[in-house]
Amino acid sequence: MNWVEYFFFQIYPYLCLAVFAIGCWARFDRSQFSWRAESSEFLEKRTLTWASNLFHIGVLGLLMGHAAGLLAPPQITEFLGLSAHAHQLLAVGAGSVFAACAAAGGGGLLYRRLFNTRVRATGRPTDLFILLFVYMQLWLGIFGLPHSLMHSDGTIMETLGAWCRGVITFQPDLPALLVNIPLIYKLHLITGMTLFLLTPFTRLVHVISAPIWYIFRPGWQIVRRNRHVANEET
């Protein structure tokens, strides 16, 4: 273990989480109007519709899969009857599907932002930067899939999960867990943590306040009445 790995896998996680928490709180407190992802649908809709849907479905699926797969202790998977081998194969299979959706959708969004003159002219540089960064993070994860298939005994996933849980529980000597992990996974971890660092300063903040509650809202019924009939009743 060298000082570079010690910084990125022992200090950097807490630096990113601190900036994420304090930065998001400060932005929401001081600039709530900027807490949104500005829509460019009126500039171009055809590509945006399919690309945005695919991208968000893929990313949300990957986020939930990462959270469930890496943060859940081994006792839970054992209780569900999943061996480490089956757990990793399930993660690779589901991750491949969601990654394909995110890659296709992200490619469409990136093409639209780069080559649609109206979208490019009105977009902010930070919007293009964060889309490129998220897309790079996505492909780092995709490039790691062959390693997961070649080491399907589940050791890689168990090691990465132990590291993630160690960050949450403030365990010392975290870099020692990643000594035998391939470089592609380490790069994926670093860019993933950097996304937390960048969130307070970009449009990624809208992920925190995504209107999930809207799905479970009570139904509304709009009744149109004839104005003449309404006047007679009154």
Automatic annotation (TrEMBL):
Residues binding heme b 2: 66
Catalytic activity annotation:
nitrate + a quinol = a quinone + nitrite + H2O
Q: Which residues form a coiled coil?
A: none
A GO cellular component entry from the record: plasma membrane
GO terms under biological process: anaerobic electron transport chain; nitrate assimilation
Membrane topology term: Multi-pass membrane protein
Reply yes or no: does the keyword Oxidoreductase apply.
Answer: yes
Q: Which residues bind heme b 1?
A: 56, 188, 206
Known Gene3D superfamilies for this protein? Transmembrane di-heme cytochromes, Chain C
State the compartments where it is located.
Answer: Cell membrane
Q: EC class of this enzyme?
A: oxidoreductase
What keywords tag this UniProt record?
Cell membrane, Electron transport, Heme, Iron, Membrane, Metal-binding, Nitrate assimilation, Oxidoreductase, Transmembrane, Transmembrane helix, Transport
Residues forming the NarG-like domain are 6-225
Spell out where the chain crosses the membrane.
6-26, 47-69, 89-114, 126-145, 195-216
A GO molecular function annotation here is: nitrate reductase (quinone) activity
Which InterPro entries does the entry link to? Heme-iron_electron_transfer, NarG-like_domain, NarG-like_sf, Nitrate_red_gam
Report whether Zinc shows up as a keyword of the record: no
Q: What is its EC number?
A: 1.7.5.1
Subunit details for this protein? Dimer of heterotrimers each composed of an alpha, a beta and a gamma chain. Alpha and beta are catalytic chains; gamma chains are involved in binding the enzyme complex to the cytoplasmic membrane.
Cross-referenced NCBIfam families, in alphabetical order? narI
Please identify the protein, giving its name as recorded: nitrate reductase (quinone)
